[in-house]
Design goal:
Blueprint lengths: L2 E4 L2 E4 L2 E2 H6 L5 E5 H15 L4 E6 L6 H9 L3 E4 L2 H10 L6 E3 L6 H10 L3 E4 L2 H14 L3 E6 L28 H11 L3 E7 L10 H19 L6 E3 L14 H19 L16 E4 L3 H4 L3 E12 L4 E5 L8 H5 L5 E3 L9 E6 L8 E8 L7 E4 L20 E5 L1
Helix pairs in contact: 2-9, 3-4, 5-6, 6-7
Bound molecules: ligand LLP.
Length: about 400
């Protein structure tokens, strides 16, 4: 873990976070970039010799320095808006390493992507494919696409973050194929079908549903190849989860290596060559779009205690940060650990509700957490906030956004 206690103070490497927090005014997000890079390397090695491409899902954390480092590390980017594509380019991702996902791409965004010649647009509906075809014709520029399949699996995760279930708006089942193929028959020279893509949900802590999704999608892949489409990419999306309740990373590292084995078992051998890959090996490129697994553990949100307020039922710790900076607890009932930057060793522990300044009762960052005594003016960190923290933050109640600090 990048953040550890030395004596009673929380550190990131050599950096005393209490000193850091005192030197900045207002709440801060602190990230350890080394932790992110180590995870990217670990994931890469989990794939072993399977030809693969890791496209970092920028929506998890779009910090410019983190993007720069991941681009330099050789990852691609998974983007969902023209804004993210712009940020990816500014960070040094080459256009041909950028994938464009999402159900609601506007014509303007598609034009931007086609003009740039990005690696792939992930198509979510026949109307979108039609629009991409029109843009490619208008600009006289070909574009590579993949069809996002909805395999109708129900991953055991929070209902707001399942995406591959038939009730979700994402992806397409096989009944869409005739219409998609009609468009390709007309425009196949400009809109080149390169592969299939999946993303069944986020915060998966086991892989059975991903296995089911891949297994259900493979026949479609082979069917399309049989029809003469030279598919050479299979994108399995993102979704790997972490264990928010604990600082023990062994289970998630184990998950990463099982992920590599799953890919090897299901896709490594069964996708025969359809051409020579850029790296000289033969076969189909396996793509993935991880977000959380790379960045969640690397970030803390640090706030300062403004007031302690006790009622007969509870003791509230009221911070200068809250749901406007970290929405996950309010939106998904996510449970993040709370780490005081300095712990009072001999104090009596007691339960606290850690809340923010926002005028909503859902503005609770952590409920009923047992901590050593907390006093006005103390600093506390909300752990594992590197993914979907700052990227989902808002100006609600007209507060400022936190400062982001990347430690190396
Ligand atoms: N690819 C696609 C098409 C996605 O929609 C997502 C996430 C990812 C990749 C990356 O998924 P990851 O590896 O991070 O699980 N705000 C929620 C998570 C929403 C995920 C949305 N899509 C949260 O805080 O838990």
């Amino acid at each position: 873990m990048p953040f550890t206690y030395r004596e009673n103070r929380l550190f990131c490497g050599e950096r005393d976070l209490l000193d850091l927090a005192r030197s900045v005014s207002g709440p801060i997000y602190v990230y350890s970039v080394q932790d992110i890079l180590e995870r990217a390397r670990r994931l890469r090695s989990a794939f072993g010799r399977v030809p693969h491409a890791i496209h970092y899902a920028m929506k998890a954390n779009g910090n410019a320095e983190i993007l720069r480092r991941l681009a330099r590390e050789g990852l691609g980017a998974d983007t969902v808006s023209a804004g993210e594509i712009e940020d990816a380019l500014a960070a040094g991702f080459a256009p041909n390493s950028i994938v464009f996902s999402g159900v609601g791409k506007t014509r303007h965004e598609i034009e931007f992507a086609v003009r740039l010649g990005i690696k792939q647009i992930n198509i979510e509906s026949p109307q979108e494919l039609e629009r991409v075809a029109q843009v490619a014709m208008h600009l006289e520029k070909p574009i590579d696409v993949a069809f996002r399949m909805n395999p109708d699996v129900n991953p055991q995760t929070h209902p707001y973050i399942t995406t591959g279930f038939r009730e979700n708006k994402f992806g397409m089942d096989e009944s869409f194929l005739p219409e998609l193929l009609r468009i390709l028959q007309r425009d196949g020279a400009r809109v080149r079908l390169r592969g299939l893509t999946l993303h069944i949900g986020s915060q998966l802590t086991e892989l059975a549903s991903l296995e089911e999704a891949i297994t259900k999608t493979l026949p479609v892949f082979h069917d399309l190849r049989g029809r003469g489409f030279p598919l050479d990419r299979f994108d399995i999306g993102g979704g790997l989860g972490i264990h928010y309740g604990s600082d023990d990373t062994s289970a998630e590292f184990q998950l990463m290596s099982e992920y590599g084995q799953l890919v090897h078992r299901l896709l490594g051998a069964t996708l025969p060559t359809s051409g020579r890959m850029n790296d000289g090996s033969l076969g189909c490129e396996i793509m993935c779009e991880p977000g959380r697994m790379l960045v969640a553990r690397s970030g803390l949100l640090i706030g300062q205690v403004q007031y302690i307020k006790s009622t007969p039922q509870k003791t509230f710790v009221i911070l200068d940060t809250g749901m406007h900076h970290l929405l996950r607890p309010a939106l998904y009932q996510a449970q993040h650990r709370v780490l005081p930057l300095e712990t009072r060793v001999d104090s009596i522990t007691k339960p606290y509700d850690i809340v923010g300044p926002i005028c909503e009762s859902s503005d609770v960052l952590a409920k009923n957490v047992v901590l050593p005594e907390i006093r006005q003016g103390d600093y506390v960190a909300i752990a594992d906030a590197g993914a979907y923290g700052y990227s989902m933050a808002s100006f609600y109640n007209r507060h400022a956004l936190p400062t982001e600090i990347v430690l190396d």
